[in-house]
Design brief:
Elements lengths: L1 E4 L4 H14 L6 E4 L8 H14 L9
Length: 64
């Protein structure tokens, strides 16, 4: 399963902002999707890890 921040608009976003104001905390919205990870060979994984380090992000390889 792969989850990412959701880009909410309109009433949905207003509801979260209202909850944040009421609770005095920040609330993040995520959407999750079934996403089978790719099976990688060591060389492929190493290339991905190098790019992750260079960009300062986490990358996820998925089957198409």
């Amino acid at each position: 399963m792969l989850c990412n921040l959701t880009n909410l608009k309109g009433k949905d976003l207003d509801q979260i902002k209202s909850l944040e104001s009421d609770l005095g905390i920040t609330v993040l919205a995520f959407s999750c999707h079934d996403a089978p990870p790719a099976t990688l060979e060591e060389e492929t994984l190493a290339k991905i890890q190098i790019l992750e380090k260079n960009l300062g992000v986490s990358l996820v390889a998925l089957n198409q």
